[in-house]
């Protein structure tokens, strides 16, 4: 629900709705939900996309190990600026845990149930972070099938959870286990059904470059889709240029605001046309933004080019 401060109308002489962007604009401000294959690192895949689409920059959000497949969010050029907003989203995986000995199903289920909720986990030796024990949340661990020593499972978990280590820790209580297969099926709101193959992206890009066919639009999402999970502030046209230049968003420039914003949380600032201008930190709660004067949001990352909207008085 949004709280309305002013019934403002946008000027259509500048800016545009995200859905009306050209392919060129999408390539500079878009996201691809790629179905990563086993073998390459996430960095390798991101580099391949960058070269394939002739981009100056591409990045990935949420690392997948080389032998893990599935949903990998690739940000294109300017969209790389929203990666901090994508790092902490919930993940879902399906995989196979191989037991080291025969274990009764009842015992497996009992032990697995103890690994839901808040757990303590120490990253494995081969990890990109310090090996310090930390708390991670397992929102659900569903056993899909048990065939001999193979346990097929689905797990939804907090970002930064090592599923390989989770399987190992479960194994410590049932005589040993390791993860033999893993596939990511969801990263935040981006699901396996939204993902695409690199070859399909490549073919569509070649068709666009050769003859103007725009089927590549089917594979690139506007940058705005990457921050849909963040709470939102909608600003007046008159505030856009300043915020796009790196200024904080002041309450005088607020048109409407999502009702449950709390001071200090990450938020996204939009134009009246639904264009993402920046992400930053709320400096007030929602209700205060409507009543007080001052800074509504401190700008951390600017996504929109400052030339899109003119400076206004």
CATH topology grouping of the domain at 91-187: Alpha-Beta Plaits
Form type: globular
Quaternary: single chain
Q: Helix share of residues?
A: 10-25%
Q: Structural class of the helix and strand makeup?
A: alpha+beta
Unreliably modeled segments: none
By CATH, the architecture of the domain at 91-187 is named 2-Layer Sandwich
Report the order of strands and helices: EHEHEEHEHEEEHEEHEEHEEEEHE
Describe the structure.
The chain is α+β, with helices and mostly antiparallel strands. Among the domains are: 2-14 and 225-302, Archaeosine Trna-guanine Transglycosylase, Chain: A, domain 4 (Roll); 91-187, 2-Layer Sandwich (Alpha-Beta Plaits). Helices cover 21% and strands 34% of the residues. It contains eight helices and 17 strands. Strands 2, 3, 4, 5, 6, 7, 8, 9, 10 and 11 form a ten-stranded mixed sheet that branches. Strands 1-14-12-15-16-17-13 form a seven-stranded mixed sheet. Strand 15 and strand 16 (276-282) form a beta hairpin. The longest helix is centred in the middle third of the chain and has 14 residues, at 198-211. The chain is globular, with a radius of gyration of 22 Å. The two termini are 30 Å apart. The model has no long low-confidence stretch (mean pLDDT 94).
